[in-house]
DNA sequence: CTGTTAGCGCGTTCAT
DNA sequence: ATGAACGCGCTAACAG
C-alpha cells in the first residue's frame, strides 16, 4: 500500500520553525502576518503539495459542501436531466452532489434521507415519491437547520422552496395547439389523481377544452396507475374501439404516448391524419420516433440548476423558513404527430 | 432558524455522571462495560435522540463512507442504469455515492476528480472520457491510498480493477444471430478506433463473418465520430445507395440504430425482410420502437453493482494494487428487427 | 469495569 | 507580527 502520509500544518510549522497558527494564517493571507512569512509558508506549502485535510476542516466548520439529491427513479430521462443540471451547477459553486433514489417507495426514501443526513450533507434536494405525504423524514432536515428544496414532485405539507414546472399551462398550451390543428375530439390519458403534476395537467386539458367550446367527455379521460407504455397501448385500444373514438390523444407523458403510437401503427391508423398524438416531457425518444412526437418540454436541466442555486442560497443565508415557489415555463415542441397536413382543418386561435 | 444544538457524548456523560469514554463504549456495547451501564446509557441516548456527529467520526477515522462516481454523460440510458445499480448496492452497504460527469472532456474529468478527492471520498468509480489517456489525475487517488475501480470505458494505463462488458463476444453473438437468420451482406456502423469498446465490437463483427465464411467488405464498415442518431441515418443512406447495399446493418449502439431505422422507414424499406437491423446496449427505446430493435444487453445495473462491491472490497482490504478484470457476459435480445419471417433463409449454426 | 488522558487537523481567541 | 493554548466530538491506549 502506497499511501504517503499527508502533510499537515503541524509539519509545515515544524519545518519552518514557526507556530501552527502562523502557518494557518499565512496560508489564508491574514493581514496580521508579515509579507515575508506569507511568502515563505506559501512557497513551502506549494512545493510540498500541502492540501488541507478536508475532513478536519469540515469537522471544524460543521459543513461538507455536499448536497443530497433524491429522486424517485434515476433511470428516467427527465430526472437524469434534472440531476445533470444540478451536478453541473453544484460543481461550479464548489459543491458535490450525493445522489439517491426512492423507487417511489416511502421506506426507501426515508432510508435515503437518513443516510444522507448521517453523512452530513449541507442541504437536500428532493423530488418525493408517490407514497410520500407528510414527509416527517424531511422535517428532520429542517430541524437540524439544514435547508431542503423540493422539485417537480412536491408536497405542500412541507414549508420549503419548491421548483416546479407550470404543468397546468404546459398542458393547456398543448391542448390548445391540438385544437388549432383542427382536432376536435381530444382524449386525455392522465395519471393518478393524488399526484399533483397529473392533476395540474388534467386541469389544463379541461380548461383548454372549455375555453374553446369543445365537449369534455369523461369517457375520453383515462387514468394510468403506473405511467407505463403498456397502459398507453391498452387505453388507446379502449378509446379507438369505443363507439365514439377521439381524433387526438393527449398523454400524461411520452412513454405513455409511445404505447399509443404503437397501437395506432399496428392498426395502421394514420398519425396525425386520423389521430393526433401529444406527449409530455419531451424525452429523447420523442424526437427519434417516427413520426416525431409532439411534446411539452419541461426544462429539466434548468430545474436542476435553479434548485441547486436556491439551495445554496438558503445554506448561505441560514434560511430554513423559506417557501418560495419557482415556477418554470414549459415549451411546446411541435413534431409530426400533431401537425395536420390538411390546412383546411386548421383554426387560428387568439 | 430552528437548529437545536445536537446532543453529544459529553452531554450524556455529564447528565449521567459518567465519563465520556464510558458513554462512548456503552453505546458500542463494549464487553468491558457493565450491562447496567449499557442499558442506562442506551436508554438515555434513545430518549434524547442521540446521533453521533458523523463529521467528527469521519475525521477521527479518516473515512467518509462516500464513494465517488464519474461518468462521461449522466443523461444516457446505459450510464444511468449503471449508476442506479451502484447507488442501490452502495446504500445496502452503508455507502453514499457522489456523482459527477465529464461530458467526455478531459478537463472536466480532472476537475471532477479533484473536487471528489478534496471532498474525501473513500474510493472512486470511473468510466473515463474519450479524451482520457494516461489518467494522471486518477493516479492521485491511488497515491493517497484511495482505491479506484474503472468500468465500461477504461484505460489499461491504470493499474486498477476493471469491470467491463464482453464487447467482443456480445458483438460476435449478435452477428452470428444475423447470419443464422439468413442475412449474408452484413454491414457495421462502428465507433472510433481509439475507443476500446468500439474496437472490440468491430473485432467481434469481423470474427463472426470470418468464422462463417462471409465476405468482409471494408465499404460496409462505417465509422461514427459522435455516436449520434444522425450518423446512423447518414451512413444508412450511404450504404443503401451504394452499388452493393447490405441486407443487414449492425450498429455500435441503439441510438445509431434508430437513425438507421428512420432512414429505412422513410424509404419504405421493409425491416427485417429487406434489411435487418441490430443495435447494441438494449436501451429502453429498443423495446418501444416498432418493429422492436434486436440488441445486445450490457447488464448495466449489474455492472454498477459489481463495481461498487469491488471498490468496497478494496477499501476494506486497503488494497490499491489490484488489477483484476471482471468481465460481464452480454445477453442477446432478439426482437422484430432481425427475425426474418422466411424460414427458408434461416441457417442452423453450431 | 470505569475514568483519565491524549490526540486527530484545523481555526481562533488571547496573550505577548 | 507571532505563538500558546484551547476546543470541535469522538476514539483508544493506558491506568487504575
Automatic annotation (TrEMBL), chains A, B:
Transmembrane segments: none annotated. The keyword ATP-binding does not apply. Residues 7-61 form the HTH lacI-type domain. Pfam families: LacI, Peripla_BP_3. Keywords: DNA-binding, Transcription, Transcription regulation. InterPro entries: HTH_LacI, LacI/GalR-like_sensor, Lambda_DNA-bd_dom_sf, Peripla_BP_I. GO terms for molecular function: DNA-binding transcription factor activity; transcription cis-regulatory region binding. The keyword Membrane does not apply. Signal peptide: none annotated. PANTHER family: HTH-TYPE TRANSCRIPTIONAL REGULATOR GALS (PTHR30146:SF109), LACI-RELATED TRANSCRIPTIONAL REPRESSOR (PTHR30146). This is Hexuronate utilization operon transcriptional repressor ExuR. It comes from Indibacter alkaliphilus (strain CCUG 57479 / KCTC 22604 / LW1).
